[in-house]
Structures are given as C-alpha cells and as structure tokens.
Amino acid sequence: MSKKLKIRKPTLREVRDFLIDNVIWIAGGAIYAAAINMFAVPNQIALSGISGVAIVVNFLTGFPIGATNFLINLPLLILAWLFVGHRFVIKTLWVVSIMSVELDYLAKFMPAYEGDRLLAAIFCGMISGFGLVLILMRGATSGGTDIIGKLVRVRWPHISMGKVIFAADAFVVALSAWVFGSYESAMYAAVVIFISTSVIDYVLYGMDNGKLLMIVTEKANEISRAVIQDVARGVSIIPITGGYTGQNKNMLLVAVRRNEVAKVNKVVRRIDDNAFTIISEVGEILGEGFKTRDHY
How many C-beta neighbours within 10 Å does residue 106 have? Predict the structure, then answer.
C-alpha cells in the first residue's frame, strides 16, 4: 500500500510574506521600468547588465525592451536551474517576468525626458536604484549579470563574483556606447551606475551600518558599566594576552552607530587614558538596538 504524499499547508506568516514580497517586487519593478523608459531610452544612455543589452537591441531593431530582457535571461536561468539551485531560479524567473512586463507596459504611459543628459543620468540612477533596492530587500534579484556571476563561480570558484559582474557590466556598457556611437553614453552610464549602487548601499546598509570598537584595557569592568549607562550600548568582555608583554588584559567589543563613537571614546578617556582602541567599519548590524532579523 503506497503512502499518500502529504502537502504541508503554508502558515499564515508564509502567506503574508508571499503577498508582501509580490507587492514590493511589483512596485520595485514599476519604479525601475519608469526610470528606464523616462530617462535611459530617450537619451540613449548605456546601461549595465541585461537591461543594457535589451536597450541596445531595441535601438537597433525596435524589439520591445521587456521581451528582450526576458528572452536573454531565460537561457541563463535554465543554466542556473541545472548548476545553481531551483529555489533561486524560480524566484528570479518570477521577478524577471514582472520587470519585463512592466518595462514594456509602462513604456506606453511614461513621458520621455529629452533635456539635459546629465540630469537624465542622475535621475535614472536615483530612481532605478530605489526600484532595485525594493527587489533586493525582499530577497530577490533582477537576474542578468547576477546569474552570470553565480554560473562562473560554479565552474571557477576562485574568481570573485564581484569581478565577474563588473567585467560583464563593463562589456555591456562598452557595447552600448559603440552602438550609440558616443563615448558620452558610456560616461553617463558610469553616472547612472555610481548613483544607483550608492542608493542601494545606502538604503540596504547606510541606515544600519556603524562602527565596531575594540578596546584593550585593564579597567574593563569600569568602562563596560559606563558605556552601558552613558551610551546605552551592550558590551562584550573578552580575555586576551599581550603577545609582546605576556600580560593578561581584557578587550571590550562595542557595536555602535557612527554618531555614538565620540561618546564611547569620551567614556574610555575618562576612565583609562592608556586604553588601546581600534575602530573599524561595520557594513550591517543585526540585533537589539539596530536592524531586526525580521527584515530578512
């Protein structure tokens, strides 16, 4: 007697997250599509990634940008299905489909800006970056060079994914500039890429990044109490041994926001002027007092 396959019923939270994901992906795709149709296409600004290739194809043949974007991504997604993972492919395929439809549909309604090309590049970068960050915030990607990077990493894991994406994007921008017959097109593309990535980094990490202070001191307990009381930040105390002196000391780990570094330094100087402090950059901090894990 064969056993019946049990299908797990999704929880209320999973249904809610699925609906929120789709609403945000649709909104992000619409914003990205608006930036492309309003600023990039009318001003022949070369873009990176598969969207840049789609704009070039549209310029040469008139074939819709969204449909081109989908058709180019499709074989990449098939390869990713075989070598990367099914879950990644299903989510990416869905988001690529949403963006491709919106790229073509919104093109009928978006007014074209054909004024100052620098302004067009600036606003294209700002708006497209915000659209992409909405998609990234909900755990998806727009496909394109991200897929290429993952595929290359499967075959050559020692190669940095960032370098692969950069090389692919640089090739697309150079190709676009050659097709448009303008070096300025590549220059404006650099403006778009810089601004869009800056927007993405700021929204994803800028509001929750901070500093990590590593304080080597003989007065760990006093400094720890003062930081907790005066700065309202948690402190971890780690026993260490000096490699040169052989003395046993303690190191305090304190994660703070940028504007709180001066407060901690003031506390340290007041209690132990001989303390050795290392301050390092932190891209993102998760936990109480910072970004919650519900964000993911």
Answer: 19
Rounded to an integer, the average pLDDT of 216-225 is 90
Q: Which residues form the domain of 84?
A: 12-206
Mean pLDDT of 252-261: 84
Q: 241: number of CA atoms within 13 Å, CB side? A: 2
**Structural domain count of the chain:** 2
Within-domain flag for 4: no
Q: Which residues contact 171 (CB under 8 A, 6 or more apart)?
A: none
**Per-residue pLDDT at 206 exceeds 70:** no
What is the helix (H) or strand (E) element at residue 215, kind and residue range? Answer: strand 210-217
CA torsion through residues 154, 160, 164, 166, sign: positive
- Backbone φ and ψ of 43, nearest 5°: -105, 10
Same domain, 104 and 45: yes
Is the same domain home to 32 and 162? yes
Tell me the C-alpha distance between 58 and 206, whole Å: 36
Looking at residue 222, what is its pLDDT? 92
CB hemisphere CA count around 286 (13 angstroms): 6
How much of the chain exceeds pLDDT 90, in percent?
17
Q: Quick check: is 160 in a domain? A: yes
Looking at the fold, whether 95 and 225 belong to one and the same domain comes out as no
